[in-house]
Every structure is written in structure tokens, then in C-alpha cells.
Amino acid sequence: MEVANEEELFKEIRNAYIGRKKISIVGSGSHSDKKGEVISTIKMNSFDIKGDIIEAYAGASVLKIREEASSYGYLFPTLYDGTIGGLLGINYVSPLSTFYGTPRDFTLWCRAITPYGGLNWKIFIGSKGLIGAISKAVMKLFPRPYKIVTLEKSYDSVNELLDDYIKLKENKPIATLVEYEKTYKIHFTYSVDPDITGFNKDDGVPFIEESDKNSYIVETPSLSEFIKLVEKTNPIYAYTVINSGFSKVYLADEDILAGFNYYPYNGVKGIYLKLKKLLDYRNIFE
After folding, report:
1. Tell me, what CATH number does 130's domain have?
2. What is the pLDDT of residues 208-232, one digit of tens each?
3. How confident is the model at residue 52, as a pLDDT?
4. Does residue 49 sit in the same domain as residue 92?
5. Is the dihedral angle over the CA atoms 5, 9, 12, 15 positive or is it negative?
6. Distance (Å, rounded) from C-alpha 9 to C-alpha 115?
7. How far is CA 213 from CA 58, 81, 237, 249, 286, in A?
8. Which class for 156: exposed (0-12), middle (13-18), buried (19 or more C-beta within 10 A)?
9. Which positions make up the signal peptide (predicted)?
């Protein structure tokens, strides 16, 4: 079912609450594996850019927002290719989060629809639709870099990786991505060419083609914590975006993560499960 505005969205959520029906909230659905009765906000797709502020409804295309913002000389700092609702629902981390933060950081406020009405509260960001349906948000834009240069290098030595990281972070990269797949690889992205030798150079921001199967989100406040995670779990693949505070690891055995703060790719942080008991005590949101 597709809804066209917040009033229709509230009506469907309220009916589900009264009838004790299970519902799932999606945007385009391209990033969702939700089942049951699905409510899509894809028709709630309007947005408006005023200076360095974007006001957008949940179904607005992130790609279209990035394109229009770019035409005005601004950057909407994410590589997500879905809708605003999806972007905020998962608090999507991209390599650009190193400098610009996650969507929660550049969101001024967002509104979510619950069975009791609308609430303006940023706590809904990252809840994956389990406590309410994000309907609208106001976010910041940033001056668009006119040149992007990415330095890349692979490492067998952890000490060499750490030494290069300490040196290159002083140049204030806008993105720092570290991958592990049998060996480490680092990507530093700058808005000016730092003219440093010993690295491969590429244009653009690194992008990760990934699936979510057998993956987990792990709290890693620093690069050193990411390295500890890799050394303990020996994952099939792992990556971290510096300053995001999280890593994603692909493992065959979840038990290896004992002792780490983590949750499965399709799960949420514990705070949302606690809030669910308060905001969705009939458990209608899936």
C-alpha cells in the first residue's frame, strides 16, 4: 500500500494499531527485506532546498536531492541510493561520514508517525521503522568540493598501516575507509590533492558493493579497535569508516563476537528495543 501524505500514513498506522495488525514501513523497498503488510512512503516524495537546508519527505529520492543540491554548489553527504526515509531509518554510514558525520549528525530534526500521532524526535533515526514511520526531515547541506582525490594502499604490516594513518589524517580527509580481506587496504579521500607518493590515486569517493548476509555491525571507536576486531574474529571481510564508530564484519560464526558490542545487520541497537516497549507496546511495527 502506498500513502501520499502524513495524514494517510497516520490513518493506516492507527488502523493497524486498533486492529492489532503487523505492518512494515518502506520507501522504494529496494533496501528492504521486510515482509507482511507493507506501507510504502514512495509517493511522499517532495523536497525543497533553501540555501544550505533541505526539507524532505520520507519518499524523496536521495539521488535527486544530491543532484539538485550539486547544481546549487552544495553537497548532500551520503552515497545512499534509496529514499530519505530509508537513509534515516538505517542511519546509513558512507565513507563521507568521516568528515560530515552520519545522517543523524547532519539532520536538524525529523518527524515520525506513531499510533498516537507525529513526534519530532531524532531518536527515530537508526530505528529501522521498528518504533514509528519517519515521515519528514530537515537536514544540512555543505559546500560541494570541486575536486576529489582518493589515495589507496594495501598493507601486510599493521604497524605500517597505523603509521600512514597517523600521518595522512593530519591532511583532514573527507573520507577514510579501511577494508580487510586477508590483508588491509586503506582509502583516504581529499578535496585537494595532497601530493603524497607511495599511494595509488583515483578520482571520486570509494564505494563498497556489499550484501548483508552473515554480517554484523560492531562498535569500534577507533582504527585500533577495528584492528583488534579483525585479529580476534578473522572475518571473511570487514570494513570501517573512520569516525563513524562502527565496523561491519562478515562471519560464519556469530559466537566469535562474544565480548563486542554488536548487532546483526537486520537488527537495531538495544535502546530501540527498549523504546519499542513504550512507543509500540502492541508490537505492530516489523
Report:
1. 3.30.465.10
2. 877 777 899 999 999 999 999 999 9
3. 97
4. yes
5. negative
6. 10
7. 26, 19, 12, 10, 19
8. exposed
9. none
Q: Average pLDDT for consecutive 10-residue bins of the chain (286 residues)?
A: 96 95 86 76 97 98 98 96 96 95 97 96 94 97 93 95 93 94 96 88 84 88 96 96 95 93 86 88 92
CB atoms within 10 A of CB 175: 25
Do 126 and 14 lie in one domain? The reply is yes
Is 47 inside any structural domain? yes
Residue 89 lies in a domain: yes
Specify if 284 maps to a domain.
Answer: no
Same-domain check for residues 122 and 232: no
**CA gap 164, 15 in Å, rounded:** 57
In this structure, the answer to whether residues 15 and 121 fall within a common structural domain is yes
pLDDT in the model for residue 272: 87
pLDDT of the residue at 196: 86
**pTM score of the predicted model:** 0.91
First to last CA, the chain: 15
In a domain, 239, yes or no: yes
**Which residue type does 91 have?**
N
Q: Structural domain of residue 252, as residue ranges?
A: 149-204+213-264
Cβ–Cβ under 8 Å, residues 25 and 133: yes
HSE toward the beta carbon, residue 94, CA cutoff 13 A: 18
In this structure, are 16 and 124 located in the same domain?
Answer: yes
